[in-house]
Backbone:
């Protein structure tokens, strides 16, 4: 089987993430990773907190903490939430790790040796009130493109345009709020992306044919506009230091690498963190260096695509070393909240900690993946959420499991009944399940999550249709053997559902599978023949009725959610 390396956009350390962040990177990566493991592939899912940059310094200052202490606390808080969502990272690292310091400096040295880093004198904004040069994110003002009045000096959060601090209208310091700013000369390192444009274009041509249109179009847009040389250092106290052996003057001035230079390197560094925890059994280089046998899939929202489809590949190419580059970049549009943008900085929308306070993770996991913003933006509404949970999870799946097991226990006891031999209805059902399973597998392997969710839902619906057709509550009045067959077949469907639903709803899948006392039940997946046979849970197997898998969301619940979070902007 193949080796699959999976990464998702690094969540920034500053603040708990909202549902848009979850569905735009980490959750689909987890779903895909779980599925690929079940299919027998070797999978390594790597992520980390992105800890450098201005917002971390400002947030630590507001919290009255050192940046290191603040980032450590926030890393643990985020990891606890991701554990609550059942995200199965192989390692969840930190970009402030020593491994990332060493690898970032290594990349910089190699780029310098190959002539792709240049020291330049530039004119930069200096705050008289703060007595310091201001990095781009320390400057806020009005975006010249869309008029948003809280744009940062590196990028406008509203229209996503990349900016320089001097582009801003009515610029002011994010530290003091002072507009007493002037432009002075200072030195920084520049990555000569313009010199690498041809190589990046060739790599995109060779690599992106199968990428989603969203990802490839963003990459090509940047290339069409022309790659610009970009400063990769900043005047900050927190970050990967510029190595003094190469740039002693800049190191003495305390320059650090720009977060967008070191953050993607953390994918490699986080893998090294993972390997360093068990060096006798783990080899980080085999995943990243001369790793021709690795299939690398990356997940992220569209605002992160330029940095990972163009800027980081340019960095890797410029080292002249055989670093692994992404094979498939799965990009997502926005998840909005009633048509308005989720915003971490403005606390607009539902955040992951609040989501877990309301309902278990499986409710959110299923809804988000079933409505993933793949081809277009998706608007979260409480009405859509409750409808999806009630119809798909509570009624279609949960009610099927409960009524089959409860009815069978009531009429036949705590063991799977034997009943008659499978007949025409069961053969027809088996063919239908095998066909739907193949459809589900195809969509999962193509990373088409909404279609995969629809196929999974169809699998659940097939069981309900079979149950309604056979009506064991009527059969038992005239033919107990026929009713027992129906219930045994339905129980086999429950076991099948437990296996194939695990990537979407792992907690419910575990409960369904645990309902049956099957010795040595280690099946990772269901073959087409097993789906047709529906015989993995034999007669005589003891079972229990698990607690209700999914409770319905009531009108009173909806009213409470709307009052707490609002129903629109």
Residues:
């Amino acid at each position: 089987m193949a080796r699959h390396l999976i990464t998702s956009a690094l969540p920034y350390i500053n603040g708990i993430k909202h549902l848009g962040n979850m569905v735009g990177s980490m959750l689909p990566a987890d779903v895909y990773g779980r599925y690929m493991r079940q299919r027998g592939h070797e999978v390594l899912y790597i992520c980390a907190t992105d800890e450098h940059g201005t917002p971390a310094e400002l947030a630590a200052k507001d919290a009255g903490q050192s940046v290191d202490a603040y980032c450590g606390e926030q890393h643990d808080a985020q990891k606890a939430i991701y554990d609550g969502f059942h995200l199965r990272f192989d390692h969840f690292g930190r970009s402030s790790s020593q491994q990332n310091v060493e690898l970032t400096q290594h990349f910089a040295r190699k780029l310098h040796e190959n002539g792709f880093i240049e020291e330049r004198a530039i004119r930069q904004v200096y705050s008289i009130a703060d007595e310091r040069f201001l990095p781009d994110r320390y400057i806020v003002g009005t975006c010249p493109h869309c008029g948003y009045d809280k744009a940062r000096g590196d990028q406008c959060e509203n229209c996503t345009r990349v900016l320089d601090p001097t582009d801003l209208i009515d610029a002011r310091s994010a530290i003091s709020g002072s507009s007493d700013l002037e432009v002075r000369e200072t030195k920084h390192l520049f990555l000569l992306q313009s010199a690498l444009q041809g190589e990046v274009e060739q790599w995109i041509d060779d690599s992106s044919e199968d990428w989603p249109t969203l990802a490839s179009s963003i990459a090509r847009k940047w290339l069409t506009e022309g790659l610009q040389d970009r400063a990769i250092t900043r005047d900050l106290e927190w970050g990967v230091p510029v190595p003094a052996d190469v740039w002693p003057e800049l190191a003495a001035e305390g320059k650090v690498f720009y977060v967008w230079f070191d953050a993607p390197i953390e994918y490699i560094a986080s893998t090294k963190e993972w390997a360093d925890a068990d060096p006798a059994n783990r080899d980080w280089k085999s995943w990243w260096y001369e790793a021709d046998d690795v299939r690398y899939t990356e997940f992220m929202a569209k605002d992160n695509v330029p940095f990972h489809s163009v800027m980081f590949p340019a960095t890797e190419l410029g080292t002249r070393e055989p670093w692994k580059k992404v094979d498939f970049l799965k990009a997502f549009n926005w998840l909005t909240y009633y048509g308005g943008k989720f915003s971490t900085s403005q606390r607009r929308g539902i955040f992951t900690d609040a989501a877990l306070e309301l309902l278990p993770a499986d409710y959110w996991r299923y809804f988000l993946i079933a409505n993933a913003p793949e081809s277009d933006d998706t608007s979260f509404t409480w009405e859509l959420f409750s409808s999806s949970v009630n119809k798909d999870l509570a009624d279609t799946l949960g009610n099927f499991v409960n009524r089959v097991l409860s009815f069978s226990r009531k009429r036949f006891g705590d063991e799977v009944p034997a009943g008659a031999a499978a007949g025409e209805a069961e053969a027809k059902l088996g063919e239908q399940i095998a066909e739907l399973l193949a459809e589900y597998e195809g969509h999962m392997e193509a990373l088409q999550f909404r279609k995969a969710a629809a196929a999974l839902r169809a699998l659940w619906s097939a069981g309900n249709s079979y149950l309604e057709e056979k009506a064991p509550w009527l059969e038992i009045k005239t033919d107990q053997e026929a009713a027992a067959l129906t219930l045994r077949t339905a129980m086999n469907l429950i076991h099948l559902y437990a296996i194939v639903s695990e990537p979407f709803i792992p907690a419910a899948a575990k409960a369904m599978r645990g309902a049956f006392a099957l010795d040595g039940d280690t099946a990772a997946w269901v073959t087409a023949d097993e789906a047709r046979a529906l015989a993995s849970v034999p007669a005589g197997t003891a079972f229990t009725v698990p607690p209700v898998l999914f409770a319905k969301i009531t009108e009173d619940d909806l009213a409470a959610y709307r009052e707490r979070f609002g129903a629109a902007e």
Remarks:
- The mean pLDDT is 95.
